[in-house]
């Protein structure tokens, strides 16, 4: 494949043609002390999505996991997921895709004006650490790039389907890690950057949680990335980890 490469900055790349899951390899690297490594694959055979869901990763996508070791409290970990979503949406927009972010971590393309969308990319962040400090974070990003949406699960789209063109994956990855690097260096501005790209804010949504369902107007995100909902019973927040499904009503 044409994407066996070195990046200029700021992550070193470990490229594989086919793996089970780039997140699994990145976790191994993290456990052994690595940082600022990007594990990239052309194809994944056992890739994982949020909440133990399957994620489809045929050859032609961008499947990448970033290892970072921020010296911050675990409560701030969701900001790295938002940072990855912002970086992904920005680079997809550079490629001509009308990408927006569905809270907490889906990069989607809106369809019509009813809040409907197709999914372009997803993010799975995994971490280890003490109660007061993150040891490592693995931010896994899956982008349906040079693929036909017909080869992907229902509800998915791809850069190819949206623009009619394939992207240079090497360049896309280079830009993605640059944007992620910039965002992690300026976490304070991640939430406002996220708001600018958010499809969810302003929508009336139904959130499914293990502890029950919530319906309300999505009005904002907090400084740690939780969703602020205006429900009939007042204002409440939902953290990303508690959200099993979010749908426009
Ligand atoms: C989701 O939307 O549920 C998250 C999907 C995350 C997929 C990416 S692809 C690269 C990395 N490796 C994995 O096994 N998963 C993530």
TrEMBL record:
Gene Ontology MF: a single term: biotin--[biotin carboxyl-carrier protein] ligase activity
Origin: domain of life: Archaea
EC class name: ligase
Residue ranges constituting the BPL/LPL catalytic domain according to the UniProt record: 1-188
One GO CC term, this protein: cytoplasm
Entry keywords, A to Z: ATP-binding, Ligase, Nucleotide-binding
Gene Ontology biological process terms from the UniProt entry: regulation of DNA-templated transcription
Catalytic activity, EC: 6.3.4.15
Name the record gives this protein: Biotin--[acetyl-CoA-carboxylase] ligase
Native organism: Natrarchaeobius halalkaliphilus
Upper taxonomic lineage: Archaea, Methanobacteriati, Methanobacteriota, Stenosarchaea group, Halobacteria
Full protein segment contained here: 65 to 313 of 313
């Amino acid at each position: 494949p044409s994407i066996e490469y070195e990046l200029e900055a700021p992550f070193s790349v470990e490229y594989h043609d086919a793996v089970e899951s780039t997140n699994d390899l990145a976790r191994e690297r993290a456990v052994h002390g690595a940082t600022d490594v990007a594990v990239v694959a052309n194809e994944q055979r056992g890739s994982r999505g949020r909440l133990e869901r399957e994620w489809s990763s045929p050859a032609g996508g961008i499947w990448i996991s970033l290892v970072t070791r921020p010296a911050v409290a675990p409560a701030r970990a969701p900001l790295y997921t938002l940072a990855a979503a912002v970086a992904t949406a920005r680079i997809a927009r550079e490629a001509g895709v009308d990408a927006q972010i569905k809270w907490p971590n889906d990069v989607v393309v809106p369809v019509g004006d009813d809040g409907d969308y197709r999914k372009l990319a997803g993010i799975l962040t995994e971490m280890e650490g003490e109660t007061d400090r993150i040891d490592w974070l693995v931010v896994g990003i899956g982008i349906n790039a040079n693929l036909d949406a017909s080869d992907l699960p229902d509800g998915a789209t791809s850069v190819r389907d949206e623009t009619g063109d394939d992207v240079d994956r090497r360049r896309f990855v280079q830009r993605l890690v640059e944007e992620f690097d910039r965002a992690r260096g300026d976490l304070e501005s991640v939430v406002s950057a996220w708001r600018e790209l958010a499809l969810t804010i302003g929508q009336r949504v139904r959130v499914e949680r293990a502890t029950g369902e919530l319906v309300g107007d999505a009005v904002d995100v907090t400084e740690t990335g939780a969703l602020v909902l205006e429900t009939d019973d007042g204002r409440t927040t939902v953290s990303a980890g508690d959200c099993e499904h979010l749908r426009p009503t």
